[in-house]
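Extended Data, panel c. Modelled sequence:
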Amino acid sequence: MTATTKPRETTEEKTKRLKRLIQVAKKQLDMEDDSYRTMLQSVTKKNSTKDMLVWELENVVTRMVSLGFRVKAKPTDRTQARDSQSKKIRSLWLELNQAGLVRDPSEAALAVYVKRQTKVEALQWLNSEQASKVIEALKKWLGRAPSN
């Protein structure tokens, strides 16, 4: 296993994570217990998450998303680069996404792009010259965007 590969989530871990997510969704949607249990019953024929299988929990999460639940992103990684060049790279990456040229605006997708350009694993490890190379490549890419 490489240093960047995450171990697979066990069924037990996934079950716990989904149950926590459902509780967060219940709170975010401000669901009263009766409404919550009625929704569980309609989705899984069970009125508690206690004995649900992973696929049933996933169906409950899907239903809660359709009711307006929004999964919030995890807080940013503390090792994330915060210098001005890194901020510019992120800004250009998001502009490319807005222009429809980048499908995935995530940090992970940006990291893949940066690695392809520089052979450096993470944005925070770029030196000034490498960061400038990435910035110029992103600017050129953005310059090729079709005008509306």
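The CA atoms of residues 26 and 35 lie 10 Å apart. This feature is highlighted in the accompanying rendering.
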